[in-house]
Amino acid sequence: MEEVAMKIVELTKYFEIGRGLKIFGGKSTYLKAVDHVTFNVRNREIMALVGESGCGKTTIGFLIVRLEDPTSGHILFEQGDIATLKKKELKSFRRNVQMIFQDPYSSLNPRLTVMQTVAEPLINHKMVVTADEARENVAMALEDVGLVPVDEYIERFPHELSGGERQRVAIARALAVRPKFIVADEPVSMLDVSIRAGVMRLMLDLRDKYGIPFLFITHDLASARFMADRIAVMYLGKIVELAGSDEVISNPRHPYTKALLRAVPVGDPNRERVPLPIKGEIPSAIDIPTGCRFHPRCPWAEDICKQAEPELKEYREDHLAACHFAVEGKERVE
User: Rounded to an integer, what distance in angstroms lies between the CA atom of residue 307 and that of residue 285?
Assistant: First the structure.
């Protein structure tokens, strides 16, 4: 097994959204965005985090780069715990862990040129001294992401670039400081379908060239299968299934994973699609159901599902699932 690059242990993030009057015995209300999540990302690996909007996957990305402070838990990276870092320690840490944001239209400052955008982290981390040195490093980053010839792009502003070019600038900015880990939050969801594959292939090439592990956050299982070595499926703040990409696609064990796969569009118009009878809407993260949090929507739920929350256990080697029946080897989820 490959050495672990980052290990997430019992990571939790609760947002306080309301407090009743104390004189009347009011209690705080919390939104449980991430609820005791544990997984790891191996060296040179792309791990995909997949789930519906609101499942907590982006919050995990923000916690890893410390744009949000965890309520509890540990983020172990390079012999240290990111979760406990103080403000003065965060600057040096952020050179090693970078983030690519979802929207290239809002993640780039419209007043800065490509040169200024990519050079900014180099200057902040004191990795360059002279203007010539900064330009040389920026040119290398732009070449890495395919924005060539460099002279045609380096003095442009964001409004002079296409959506795909903007996202490549955002990737170049993250890559310029030679990070040791990258969190990519829905990096292609805002792009035209015609250019998504090119940006995803770029990230795969960069992983192969520099050996940088990625946490690839997406709602699209098709993109996850294309990009990732392993896939972790999230539902309502918890990971409910984790395995190799091909294993998750070909042999899903959790009914929620099966529902996500049934939702993927099929290119053959003559192929009949059998809908999975998932009921109702996703519950609120403020009022999470008892037992298995998927049981109100699960067509195979039994009494045990309403009473006991299943743990994420190994169904077979390197395939984990949080379902009473999948873990026990029963075929009710088929």
Answer: 18
What is the Rg, in whole angstroms, of the alpha carbon atoms belonging to the chain? 21
Domain count, the chain: 1
Give the residue numbers spanning the domain of 316.
233-265+277-334
Beta-carbon count within 10 A of 283 CB: 16
**Is residue 244 one of the residues assigned to a domain?**
yes
Residue 78 in any domain: the answer is no
Looking at the DSSP assignment, which residues form a beta bridge with residue 39? 8
3-state secondary structure the chain: CCCEEEEEEEEEEEEEEEECCHHHCCCEEEEEEEEEEEEEEECCCEEEEECCCCCCHHHHHHHHCCCCCCCEEEEEECCEEHHHCCHHHHHHHHHHEEEECCCCCCCCCCCCCHHHHHHHHHHHCCCCCCHHHHHHHHHHHHHHCCCCCHHHCCCCCHHHCCHHHHHHHHHHHHHHCCCCEEEEECCCCCCCHHHHHHHHHHHHHHHHHHCCCEEEEECCHHHHHHHCCEEEEEECCEEEEEEEHHHHHHCCCCHHHHHHHHHCCCCCCCCCCCCCCCCCCCCCCCCCCCCCCCCCCCCCCCHHHHHCCCCCEEEECCEEECCHHHHHCCCCCC
The answer to the question of residue 82 being in a domain is no
Q: Is residue 320 part of a domain?
A: yes
d(CA 85, CA 83): 6
230-235 sheet: strands from edge to edge: 97-100, 181-185, 214-218, 46-50, 230-235, 238-244, 319-321, 313-316
Q: Contact, 323 vs 240, CB < 8 A?
A: yes
CB 295 within 8 A of CB 278: no
**pTM of the full predicted structure?**
0.90
pLDDT (tens digit, 9 = 90+) per residue, 204-220? Answer: 999 999 999 999 999 98
- Per-residue pLDDT tens digits for 25-54: 567 789 999 999 999 999 999 999 999 888
